[in-house]
Automatic annotation (TrEMBL):
Membrane-spanning segments: 12-39, 51-73, 85-104, 116-134, 180-206, 213-230, 242-264, 271-288
Source organism superkingdom: Bacteria
Lineage: Bacteria, Pseudomonadati, Pseudomonadota, Alphaproteobacteria, Rhodobacterales
PANTHER family recorded: MEMBRANE TRANSPORTER PROTEIN MJ0441-RELATED (PTHR43701), MEMBRANE TRANSPORTER PROTEIN YTNM-RELATED (PTHR43701:SF12)
Organism whose genome encodes this protein: Loktanella gaetbuli
Keywords: Cell membrane, Membrane, Transmembrane, Transmembrane helix
Topology within the bilayer: Multi-pass membrane protein
Name recorded for this polypeptide: Probable membrane transporter protein
Main location: membrane
Matches recorded under Pfam families: TauE
Family annotation (InterPro entries): TM_pro_TauE-like, TSUP/Inactive_protease-like
UniProt record similarity statement: Belongs to the 4-toluene sulfonate uptake permease (TSUP) (TC 2.A.102) family.
Subcellular location: Cell membrane; Membrane
């Protein structure tokens, strides 16, 4: 069933958009990521203009993340104090990211640069996660072998302004999580992502948080940062397509509930390696599209659109 999207100015199959929303909602519940790293490139693939895809995908991220967060709150696996620190940094980063996005849009280079950002970040994060996940699985199979201590003190523990995060079992400086939040907020504004694919590894490997707490805490931060980013795009760029957002939200809310249930049945190492595979697959598809010659070499569009 074809449906016309007024802001994107294209016609897309409604069931296809519902399916994309459901898939990303499933990932949100399983991995604690907003799913923007997947939904935004997928919208590119079905013909949605990058500027509209970036601005609108954050709506779906809010809905699917909120749905998944409710399931984690019931299980008491959310560190609200850590989430608040990440949120403060995320709001600052989103404001900075929107300035960069508007500058790129004014130059007429936003489409190309957004795609390049995705290839670089997804390739880097996916590779690092894959290596660490494989090492973790190897250690799990050979418990008698050399094992790295998870809670060793490093440079993070030497920084000032320490705060006790009881749910995570940590006593560390607020500076690292604040900086992680700023970085994720910038990505959210420029790339239309929740930033979970960066934040989840950072919370596990940099901050030393337990995986079961990371997922719910990541979702808590994602909800508010992506809501703020959506409002910024809607009021400054007018690139949020309500019809597209509604279809993605319906699919995302349903998929998130199934994802939260499925995530509890998999081991932490299995969850991380599946997420790494997804990140690398999306990165490969985007890189291939950039390298291959497009079907249409020229296009005509109105100025400023």
């Amino acid at each position: 069933m074809q449906i016309y999207l007024p802001i994107a100015e294209v016609s897309v199959d409604a069931f296809l958009l519902l399916g994309l929303g459901g898939l990303v909602g499933l990932l949100s519940g399983m991995f604690g990521v907003g799913g923007g790293f997947l939904i935004t490139p997928l919208l590119f693939f079905v013909g949605i203009p990058p500027a509209v895809a970036v601005a609108t995908s954050t709506n779906q991220i809010v809905a699917s993340s909120f749905s998944a967060l409710l399931a984690h709150v019931k299980r008491k696996t959310v560190d609200f104090r850590m989430g608040t620190v990440l949120l403060i940094g995320g709001l600052i980063g989103s404001s900075l990211g929107l300035v960069v996005f508007n500058y790129l849009r004014a130059l007429g280079q936003v489409d190309l640069l957004v795609n390049l950002f995705y290839v670089v970040f997804l390739g880097t994060i996916g590779s690092l996660m894959m290596i660490e996940s494989l090492n973790a699985m190897r250690r799990a199979r050979n418990p008698s072998g050399p094992r790295r201590a998870r809670r060793q003190h490093n440079w993070v523990h030497k920084l000032p302004l320490k705060v006790k995060f009881r749910v995570s079992g940590l006593y560390i400086s607020v500076v690292p999580p604040l900086l992680v939040g700023v970085f994720v907020g910038i990505l959210s504004a420029i790339m239309g992502v929740g930033g979970g694919f960066v934040m989840v590894p950072a919370m596990i490997y940099l901050l030393g948080m337990p995986t079961k707490v990371v997922i719910g805490t990541s979702l808590f931060q994602i909800i508010f940062v992506t809501s703020y980013t959506t409002m910024l795009h809607a009021t400054t760029n007018y690139t949020v397509d309500i019809v597209l957002a509604l279809l993605l939200i319906i699919g995302g809310v349903i998929g998130a509930q199934f994802g939260a249930i499925l995530g509890l049945r998999l081991k932490a190492e299995q969850l991380r390696i599946l997420l790494a595979l997804l990140v690398l697959l999306v990165c490969g598809k985007l890189a291939l599209d950039l390298l291959l010659q497009p079907a249409e070499l020229y296009s005509v569009s109105a100025g400023g659109v």
